[in-house]
């Protein structure tokens, strides 16, 4: 059952894009959430982080460590939902190797530009980045073995649509490694309308 949210979704998406464009273009600024390589290291990211260019990692804005749920296997096809500047995608690309493939999607053009630049800098030929929204993935059914995501699903009001899409694009028996923010208590109607609570 979908939750009724009294918020203008287009305004919300616009504000989210502005927030993460700022993280991309001015990573040295202080944000309401932690960012950058020191944050990823504090979260216990795997050794592959060391080879990810600063171009990507300086704009890392994940909320936790999806790699605590396990490593990827060589040859796996991976979707990084909300890939941002590409940190998790480039970690994944190293894990799956030349026989595997990683597709990162994000709706923020500035983040995608950084991800493309970082992949080129790293020489990662088994990764691609696509501009898309999580509720309408531009991929065929059963296209991926694994979905990874870090701090993105909490930003999307229609979580049912997101999980329906993830189920559709995963192969039977596929898995999700999601790190995200959850709440323990219901949010007031006023809180659900507050764009600032959604964006950061």
Helix and strand content put the structural class at alpha/beta
**CATH topology description:** Rossmann fold
Instruction: Report the principal-axis shape.
Output: globular
Largest sheet: 5 strands, parallel
What is the class in the CATH system?
Alpha Beta
Question: Unreliable segments (pLDDT under 50, ≥5 consecutive)?
Answer: none
Strand fraction equals 15-25%
Rg to the nearest angstrom?
Answer: 16 Å
Total tally of structural domains:
1
Total number of beta strands = 5
Residue share in helix: 25-40%
Strand order, biggest sheet? 3-2-1-4-5
CATH homologous superfamily, by name?
A: Vaccinia Virus protein VP39
Which architecture would the CATH scheme give at its second level?
3-Layer(aba) Sandwich
User: Termini separation (Å)?
Assistant: 25 Å
- How many separate helices? 8
Task: Give, in order, the helices and strands.
Answer: HHHEHEHEEHEHH
Mean pLDDT: 86
């Amino acid at each position: 059952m979908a939750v009724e949210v009294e918020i203008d979704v287009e305004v919300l998406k616009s504000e989210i894009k502005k927030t993460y464009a700022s993280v991309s273009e001015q990573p040295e600024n202080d944000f309401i959430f932690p960012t950058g390589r020191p944050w990823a290291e504090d979260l216990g990211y795997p050794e592959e982080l060391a080879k990810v260019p600063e171009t990507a990692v300086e704009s890392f804005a994940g909320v936790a460590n999806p790699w605590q749920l396990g490593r990827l296997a060589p040859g796996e096809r991976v979707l990084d939902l909300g890939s941002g500047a590409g940190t998790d995608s480039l970690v994944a690309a190293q894990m799956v190797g030349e026989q595997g493939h990683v597709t990162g999607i994000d709706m923020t053009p500035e983040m995608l530009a950084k991800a493309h630049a970082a992949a080129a800098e790293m020489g990662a030929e088994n990764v691609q980045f696509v501009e898309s929204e999580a509720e309408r993935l531009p991929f065929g059914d059963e296209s991926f073995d694994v979905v990874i995501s870090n701090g993105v699903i909490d930003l999307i009001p229609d979580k049912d649509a997101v999980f329906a899409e993830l189920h559709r694009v995963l192969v039977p028996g596929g898995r999700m490694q999601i790190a995200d923010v959850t709440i323990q208590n219901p949010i007031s109607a006023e809180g659900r309308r507050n764009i600032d609570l959604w964006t950061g």
